[in-house]
Amino acid sequence: MPKIVVQSCIICMRYFSKHSGMAPRCSSPGSKGFTLVELIVVITIMVAMMALAASMLRGGGRGQGLQAAVEMVDGMVQEARLDAMGKGTWSRLIIVSTPDDESRNMRTLGVMSKNTRTGKWHLVNRLQTLPAGFYVSPAYSTLLEGSKKARGEKSTARGFASRDGQDTVNLPGNRMTDIYFIEFDEEGRMSQPNAPTRLVVVAGSAGNGKEERPTPMVDGKPGLAGGIVIYPKGNISRLRTTEQVIPN
């Protein structure tokens, strides 16, 4: 039981003991105990305090989940950059776009590297998934997306045709899907897009690709969000204030 609940119960028991002239002991033949009303009041307070404590724990848990999600995105961006510099090739942080699978949509990330001999891209690690209830928001991020969406589908992201046409990834089960990505060159500089790029993590669901479902919403904006910004030279900064994360 949370400490605050225990302390509240002790205070209540002491109060009733003092004002009723009774010792807080169980009823037995020939002894006095608490009245039914007193017990009901104590139980009511306990239930209310436990509900409050549970709410506080849930809020703290979501805050920790957001921090873990932002740290995961930050770490994978750095991994992609270091992979490019270490191998002397291009590397990408990829974000999987699967509108028909909300459990993966904008929540599954990985690092891909370009083979300098064959010119083909391949995953350099296992795909990782953000903590439950969090996703990378296309609406509040600055992302590049593959050629399929650039052929005319409406999108909040910047459509383009990749220079090598490889804008998909093969998921487990031999299933090809579109991706968003950030690309680094052999010197660790961001080659695509060549502009400050925001990656914003939001609590909620990316939905089916047509409309995001952030939760909670506060004044028409996501109420729980965080992120990073990557600059063309490859350096990274955290977005620390609400105005930085969700600009007006």
From TrEMBL:
Taxonomic superkingdom: Bacteria
Keyword Membrane: yes
Ranges annotated as spanning the membrane: 34-57
Keyword annotations of the record: Membrane, Transmembrane, Transmembrane helix
Pfam family name, one: N_methyl
PROSITE patterns, alphabetized: PROKAR_NTER_METHYL
NCBIfam families assigned: IV_pilin_GFxxxE
Descriptive protein name: Prepilin-type N-terminal cleavage/methylation domain-containing protein
Organism of provenance: Akkermansia muciniphila
Taxonomic classification: Bacteria, Pseudomonadati, Verrucomicrobiota, Verrucomicrobiia, Verrucomicrobiales
